[in-house]
Design brief:
There is one protein chain. This protein is mainly alpha-helical. It has a single domain (16-193, 216-245), classed as Four Helix Bundle (Hemerythrin (Met), subunit A) (Up-down Bundle), CATH 1.20.120.1760. It is built from eight helices and two strands. The radius of gyration is 21 Å and the shape is globular.
Length: 259
């Protein structure tokens, strides 16, 4: 039996190509903040999703070119904190949370605390991810920060056309932001799709979902993205409930037959 291949030690060198994508992720997050301050929430939402694309590419490029490094890992985490932690919180705050002060100091404080709660949860989620070794690579512990950022940004993006959301809409924005933060630090398991076999055969109906998804995103970008990432966010609690129900059914004692 062949001996397992030893894990390649992480290099201390700094590589240009993957870190360029990480810089693109950082720039997109910074631009989302600037766009939100200027009141352009459509561009802010688009910038967060551009940051997600850059964040996906930097890791893949590093693995394909064998240019993974300790510097790249730390730089990626810092960029993620800006793009998926600070930026969505500020976008949500600028769009509607700040206007909660119009309905009283209590509502206003609850709103900005919800935005801070999201940013703090993103930092805790990234710290936990960096310090823990996942037992099962197929699942993430807690909602990944890019997905949480996608939910908040897509909600604000889709709601930016509201002339006056009113108190209910502003409260909804704060709740969506706080809930996304909670899911990041939760223990719910989320499919990482790292074991997905892209080269294996799939059903034709499954394959049709890919172009259908792109069509919906092209026609209704914020609504489609909110539906996709919202469904992914709900999958964690849903599977947790189903797992508990199955465990409860297994533990139920069997009633003896009457004789």
């Amino acid at each position: 039996m062949d001996a397992p291949t030893p894990e390649r030690p992480r290099s201390r060198a700094i590589y240009l190509l993957p870190n360029l994508f990480t810089t693109g992720c950082l720039f997109s997050g910074f631009y989302a903040i600037v766009a939100a301050i200027d009141g352009n929430y459509e561009r802010a939402g688009f910038a967060v999703f551009a940051a997600m694309l850059m964040d996906t590419l930097d890791g893949r490029v590093a693995r394909l070119t064998r240019t993974e490094s300790a510097f790249g890992k730390e730089y990626d985490s810092l960029a993620d904190m800006v793009s998926f932690g600070v930026a969505p919180a500020i976008v949500a705050y600028q769009w509607g949370v700040v206007r909660l002060f119009e309905y009283g100091q209590v509502w206003g404080r609850v709103g900005w605390l919800a935005a801070f709660f999201y940013a703090a949860c993103a930092a805790l989620r990234l710290a936990r991810f960096n310090t823990r070794t996942a037992a099962d690579k197929r699942f993430f512990e807690g909602l990944p920060s890019p997905s949480a950022a996608a939910i908040v940004s897509a909600f604000i993006w889709s709601s930016s056309e509201w002339r006056e959301p009113g108190l209910a809409g502003l409260i909804m924005a704060a709740l969506v932001t706080a809930t996304a933060g909670f899911l990041m630090v939760s223990s719910f398991g989320y499919n990482s799709f790292k074991k997905l076999d892209a080269e294996g055969p799939v059903r034709f109906a499954t394959f049709l979902l890919v172009p259908l998804g792109f069509i919906l995103i092209a026609l209704y970008p914020p609504t489609a993205l909110l539906a996709i990432f919202g469904t992914y966010a709900l999958s964690g609690p849903l599977f947790w409930v189903l797992k508990r129900m199955r465990r409860g059914q297994r533990r139920e004692p069997q009633e003896p037959d009457a004789t």
